[in-house]
Amino acid sequence: MTDDPTMPLPKHPSKNSDETRCPVSLALSFVVTQLVLHGWWLAASGGMLMPHLVGWVQDSAILLVMALLLGWSFRRANRQVALKRLATATTTVTVITAGVLLASYTPLLDDFLLFPVNLLATDRETAWFFFSDYLGWAFMRTPVAGLALGLAIYWRGGRFLDLRRPSLIAVPLVVLTLASLGRPAPNPFVYSLQATVQSWFRPRKVPSLTRPVVTTPSATAEEESAVFDTASTLRYRHLLLIVLESVDATVFERQFLANPNGYFARVRHRSAYYASYHATNLDSHTSLIAMLTSVFVPYRAYTDARLYENADRASNMVHSLRQRGFQTLFVSTFDHQPFVPVRQDWQRIITRGDLPAQPGLVAIGSSRMESAVEDLAAMPTIVEWLSTHDRTVILHEMAYGHSQAWASKTGESQLAYYDRYLRALLDKLEQAKLAEETLVVVVADHGLRANAADPQNYHIPLLVTGAGVAACRDNSFRSHLDLQRILAYHAAGAVLSTGGNSILTVGSSDRWVYGEVRKDGACLFVDNGTGTIMRSAGGLAPDELYRRFQAEVQAFAARWQH
Questions:
Q1: How far apart are CA 345 and CA 321, in angstroms?
Q2: CATH T-level assignment (fold) for domain 221-560
Q3: pTM
Q4: Nearest-angstrom CA–CA distance, 290 and 313
Q5: Using one digit for the tens of pLDDT, what is the confidence trace for 72-97?
């Protein structure tokens, strides 16, 4: 048997010639590999032990059950050469493929816990974005390393993994895995199965949204009118927009506004806080589009950008102020930032590679999209722009908090870091004698993206600070669609309405969740993929929300899509 050239399964020196145990030995090699990778990334990220430990148990159960089932088919075919070759090849490829796939998620486990995604429910565009823009090719180093290590363990140490009773290991791991399924799994493949099975038992309550029919020509930027186009003389020479990453209003008020020694304590007397301000989208790109253009994008951001690229070119406050002589700057400390809102209206777009080297600042790089240096790296460039240009509009999209790795690596909470950043910025503005001429706007893009059915994640902070701003707390129900008018009110005395009563929302990129949030606290969120009600409060009617949102999609397509 050992000289049969038709056997593709890798051999390892073994005193036991029973090759039916080879699948289990191969699986155990990858079990050891997963233990090494989980330990490595746990130490590197400073993450939590239990998710890595539970993830490894689930990895091990998957690998061993797969190997035992395939090994059983191996034995059933041991008297038929053709079936034997097929079973052996299938075993080898399947176990190795499973090992590589399981290795691939270990560096992302901390981020996955914050933003779990059902892999079985993603569409082609989302999957391509995830691999091409979020992960990048450099991410392949981990699965390749897992493949190399797993095969090396098998070839060099397989004799020690050649077990006569593999079920003695497999059964306890399966039992532990089953016991862990009462909570969302840290293993993304197990989690996806959990979420999919759960969806089978939830009957569709709402029809699926249908593709809109485009019947009228697309709007152009020239046909639109931004608030700042008709605003009177501006009170400030500089508009500085600081966009915080994933912060809800409850946490902001408790940890930021209540800090007696923080930024807000210094500027309270000239600040307006908008206490009932909301995000329209849980994706940063579409949220930023809504802020700057006052256009609600009823789609997820990272599916097909062609659906809303015309809206991203709509007339906006950056374009309006640039037409009035303001120099426009977009700043991000990420290495890779493909999602810049109203890109054509920024005279300069700066990312990490354009910033001067500053020793001592923290940087992370778990994936292509997360690779960044901390936000303080942008401050010298921002202050230089303010000092060397007569009038400026600057948007700094913050990186700190986009990944759990920031807090793990620095030991500093997100709001504590933002407070330190803003205090340092205020010091710089005062030293350069720019504080009286600058309107500083602190706003979040959205709250936590992990739960698209939590209204708190759409309730976000907006703090406007500047000389001449009347100290107040505005409780009117507002959203990103109102930001242009709010800023025009403070900068140029434009009329500010008393606010609305409700907004439509779109969840994050993992699945298409749409909803409605109302001033009185009522809310309703629908998962379009399954037609299920994810959350309902206040007696809102699902059918009415469906019709309203379908009409919104149709109106958006008629106005903005090709």
A1: 10
A2: Alkaline Phosphatase, subunit A (3.40.720)
A3: 0.75
A4: 12
A5: 666 665 556 666 667 777 778 888 99
